Structure formats: C-alpha cells, structure tokens
Amino acid sequence: MIDRIYSIFALVIAGAYGFLAFTVIKAPFQYDPLGPESWPQILSVVAVLCCLAVIWKPDVAKLSLAKKTLLRIGIVLVLLSAYSALYEGLGFIISTILFCAIFASILGAEWKKALLFSLVTGIAGYFLCAKLLELNLPSGLLDAFL
After folding, report:
1. Cα separation of 139 and 91, whole Å?
2. Closest of 22, 17, 6, 2 to residue 48, by C-alpha
3. pLDDT at 30
4. DSSP string, 86-144
5. What is the pLDDT of residues 42-91, one digit of tens each?
6. Would you list the domain boundaries of the chain?
7. Whole-number average pLDDT of the chain
C-alpha cells in the first residue's frame, strides 16, 4: 500500500516535470542529434511509466532499514545539498574532492584511500570533462590556475 501512495506522489511530480519539459524548456539551438530538449522529455516519460508500473503492481516485499542506514541516507542527502550549494563558488574540483572524500569515508574507506580517491576523481574528472569533452565546468577558487 505504501508503494502505491509513494508512486502516486511521485507520479504527480513526474507529471509536472513532464509538463515543464514538453512546454517550457526550449533551446535556442541544437548542438547534438537529440538536442537539449529531448533529455528532460525522455526522463519525464520514463518516470511516469515507472510510477504507473508500481501503481499497477506494487512490490509485495517489506522493506525495513536499520537506523544506521537511515542516518547514512540522511547524511548523503545533506552532502548532495552541500555539494550543489558549493559547486559554483568552490568550483568542480574542490567541491568534488570534498564530497567524494566524505562520501567514501561514510561507505567505510580509510581516510587515506578516501582522500586519494577524491583527488583522482576531482582532478581527472575536471580535465576529462572540461578539457577533453569541452564542457563548461566552474573552476571556482582555482580559476587562476586553470
């Protein structure tokens, strides 16, 4: 029963997102075969179909989470919110390093390994996306060096 209630709530959100995707989002030019308008439209259609599938036939298995797991989920939500808030100001590299280091340590990595992972992810990710793929990523505090 709770699956259906959640799916109805998610269906309303996906429907509103779909309405915006099909009516409001308009790109001034197309720079890839699908264009920037297609991805939100595809996402909204898939989300609506998934919600309808759960409403039609919900899962019968019970889901129970330990308090520790719920706490981790809450921490990850706070981390993602902080990452999005700091993304422009600090830039891609620094905000990604901070996020990945904390996230990896939450998942059980030692701090040295978490820091190494986050450094590689932040730096390699920036140069892969910004230099190789020519995407616009904020350099933030490292603007003078990049």
Report:
1. 4
2. 17
3. 62
4. HHHHH-HHHHHHHHHHHHHHHTT--HHHHHHHHHHHHHHHHIIIIIIS------GGGTT
5. 999 999 999 999 999 877 777 777 888 889 899 999 999 999 999 999 99
6. 2-56, 67-142
7. 88
